[in-house]
Amino acid sequence: MSAVEQTTDELFDCRESFAQTIEALAAEDPRIVTVVSDSVGSSKLGGFRTKFPDRMVNVGIAEQTLVAVGAGLANGGKVPFVSAASCFITGRAMEQVKADIAYSNVNVKLIGQSSGVAYGELGPTHHSIEDLAWLRLFNNMKLIVPADPWQTSEAIRAAAAHDGPVFVRISRMKVPALERSADARFEIGSAETLVEGDDATIIANGTMVHRAVAAARLLADEGIATRVVNMATVNPLDEAAIAAAADTGAIVTLEEHSVRGGLGGAVAELVATTNPVPMRILGFPGFVPTGSAEFLFDHFGLNPAGIADAVRQTVARKR
Amino acid sequence: MSSSTKVPRNDAVTQIASKSLWIRRRSFQMVYEAQQGHPGGDFSAADILATLYFGVMRFDPRKPNDPGRDRFVMSKGHCSGAFYAALAAAGYFPEDELKTYMEPLSKLNGHPNRNYLPGVETNTGPLGHGLPVATGIAIAGQLDNADFRTFVLTGDGELQEGSNWECALTAAHRKLENLTLIVDRNRLQQGARTEDTATLDPLDEKWRAFGWHVEMVDGHDHAQLLDVLSAPAKGRGKPLCVIANTFKGKGVSFMHDNVSWHHGVPNKEQYEQAMAELV
Ligand SMILES: Cc1ncc(C[n+]2csc(CCOP(=O)(O)OP(=O)(O)O)c2C)c(N)n1
Ligand SMILES: [Mg+2]
């Protein structure tokens, strides 16, 4: 099988890629500012603050104000990157996100840090496994869930280049770098196929992409050629990639999110209304018990063995 | 079980002192073993928690749902280490349970969960929720003419959340004398000093302007805490805000007033030095 391999064993915290990219962009574009809510360290924006002290607005622990101030800064001609823990920038400030950013359709970039269950033992208040479901409702907001450092950096650049609301969901969990050809490009709305295969398709994003690739390897060994699609953009969806996935006759979606309303829900809406094929949606069922992120992944079968199992079961239901 | 009226004041103060030391030591051990937690804020809150549970509140840990109990809401839920230690000391669950802090499937989640543990009134973790929930509890008590009191502990950085100030209006409007807010005024938030982030001072004047009765105390002085918190609430006609001036990391020299201990965790040497100082 032709698989994307990790370049090295090195693991990366994608918040660092975000921080480096935003510093580089800010050096080129004086309109770029950052907005934080006592979230400088957790956003890795200490370097930005040192380089551009006047271009960081720290509103204190006040996420509703955080998001709304972002909208105001955009009105004043700035390009604000508003960054805080994903659970709070979405859940706590949802009406500001809806009315001030999405409905007002302003040029604000929301950066949801440490998304998914990265905060592990801190529990469901700090997990952000509802964010995609909430934000998917805003049809004009681009939603990007990058999988590795390169894609994080590209997503931030694409967000800056796009005139309109964008949400980029970043993890603090260390991930490998995927190997890509030199001419690889990231475009909002286009998925990338990481592993070829025609027996089934795993559609994943974010931290789960690496696990999907590992599961596909297990399945290849037993003769189930499983395609792995990295669906980094949840809105807008790459409809052609999903149509092609349906042609393999079995789809498993995989995300560090609730099984309700996220990537799986988005894919299912399209598949059910175009070319229904057997599907499984992998993720978290709801509020999770106490435990580290790694423990929770294993507990809910979001590891290569569990994912491979889900693919086998879905393939068995193929028509 | 606990009621300040039955115990002479000096004995109460002595007991509170020993419990607050125990809470500091035990919570620090929990943080050390879990290699996670918020020890700086555990230490700024330890004396307040000990005073509430061992000198002020009326409760029976065997009847955690008794409708007449005084309520405590730990709004700064990130300091679950000190809160759990206080609950165990107060008899809500065996001390042994503290060993499971943040372990897989533990009842002692990083932030308190009322569905796992008795004595937890509401799930906290996101800042700025405790005061509004406590206000709802106090309104229920007011509607029923009940004589229980409701206490809520917030951080000071936490007061940057607007929900607190919305609620400040509601509580004063309803003259909730059965409601007491204690602010852990350690002057540090997650990444910096409060006054370098979003200025809170003059904090007492703000609460007064919102219609609250305000008391300022040394938040590590057990006698002062005991006196303001156990003063009769009836007839005050206003909710009470106690601004407890504290230090993050209080009790351990290298943690004292040091923001890096907001969620810093100790290595072995630091743990041993801290335990040697906490006597
Ligand atoms: C709504 C919300 N935003 C952000 C956080 C992340 N956070 C946890 S503790 C903390 C700082 C709290 O400071 P303070 O209220 O002063 O507490 P203390 O100093 O007593 O620890 C922050 C920003 C949170 N828990 N909830
Ligand atoms: Mg503080």
TrEMBL record, chain A:
Cofactor(s) the record lists: thiamine diphosphate
UniProtKB keywords: Thiamine pyrophosphate
The Transketolase-like pyrimidine-binding domain, residue ranges: 12-177
Keyword Protein biosynthesis: no
The family this protein is said to belong to: Belongs to the transketolase family.
Species in which this protein is naturally found: Devosia pacifica
A Pfam family: Transket_pyr
Superkingdom classification of source: Bacteria
Name of the protein in its database record: Transketolase
